[in-house]
Specification:
This protein has about 250 residues and is mainly beta. Helix content is about 15%, strand content about 50%. It folds into two domains: about 140 residues, 2-Layer Sandwich (Double Stranded RNA Binding Domain), CATH 3.30.160; about 80 residues, Immunoglobulin-like. The strands form five sheets. It has a six-stranded mixed beta sheet, with helices on one face. It starts with about 25 loop residues before the first strand and ends with a strand.
Length: about 250
């Protein structure tokens, strides 16, 4: 069976004693279904290095410099989503055009001399210039270029899922040990597994994240729903914390 996994996986795991990356924060303010075109404001490439080393045949080989071009990455994701990329704003198409602008939003310490680079993307209307969406994300790799590449990947994956949802989760009930969900399949194909992050909040602050897998007892066909339970891990069982779900993959 063809796998459709969106790998946001290992992304947000703790590395050693380092802190955890925050989940991407994607806010959609308008209906993006009316847009067919995108214009990306050019961003400067990020070059960094050397990016560590690898052992090949017993010889330590430097990885050299790494370069990432944010504009090209954003362009690739939008093409994958079916948008036409414009080299400039076309007045006749402005009503159907989104403008993407990328920027750096600083960095955050993760401990042990490790830092996460933070990025932000604004999406505005080509005609009215009103804000349609914001994407905020962070990444942490071997180099600054790795950081930016990782942050763009996480943020754009959540953005893609936000405007083209594949699976719907509705909370049926929550106990100290489990969360009972109604899982609805919005894809054109049957699904068997769903991977997701469960984020727990206390007074609107993120206090804990848990990765969960939903293995359905039978294939869930398009347009159908199924009730499934998620076991809360030990930290989350201490209190009945509000939860938020981010689907990161399915097959």
């Amino acid at each position: 069976m063809k796998r459709i996994f969106i790998i946001l996986a290992a992304v947000m795991l703790t590395v050693g004693a380092m802190g955890q990356l925050y989940l991407p924060d994607v806010k959609i303010m308008g209906d993006l279904r009316q847009y067919r075109y995108a214009y990306i404001i050019p961003a400067s490439p990020v070059t960094s290095g050397p990016g560590g080393a690898a052992i090949i045949g017993g010889v330590v080989v430097s990885e050299g410099t790494k370069t990432v071009n944010p504009s090209e990455i954003i362009s690739g994701y939008l093409i994958k989503l079916g948008y036409n990329i414009l080299p400039s704003i076309v007045p006749e198409l402005a009503e159907e055009t989104m403008i993407f602008s990328y920027g750096r939003a600083g960095s955050r310490s993760l401990g042990l001399f490790s830092y996460a680079s933070q990025i932000i993307i604004h999406v505005t209307s080509g005609k009215t210039h009103e804000l349609l969406a914001t994407i905020e994300a962070e990444g942490c790799g071997n180099t600054e270029a790795d950081d930016i590449n990782q942050a763009l990947y996480y943020g754009l994956e959540i953005f893609a899922y936000s405007i083209h949802p594949k699976i719907k989760l509705a909370i049926r009930s929550i106990t100290r040990n489990t969360i009972n969900l109604d899982v609805s399949n919005l894809t054109p194909n049957p699904i068997k597994h769903v991977a997701l992050w469960v984020s727990y909040y206390e007074k609107d602050s993120l206090v804990h994240m848990q990765k969960a897998h939903l293995s359905l007892p039978e294939k869930l066909y398009p347009g159908k729903s199924y009730m499934k339970s998620i076991s809360r891990d030990k930290v989350a069982r201490k209190k009945d914390m509000p939860v938020k779900f981010d689907i990161i993959g399915y097959e």
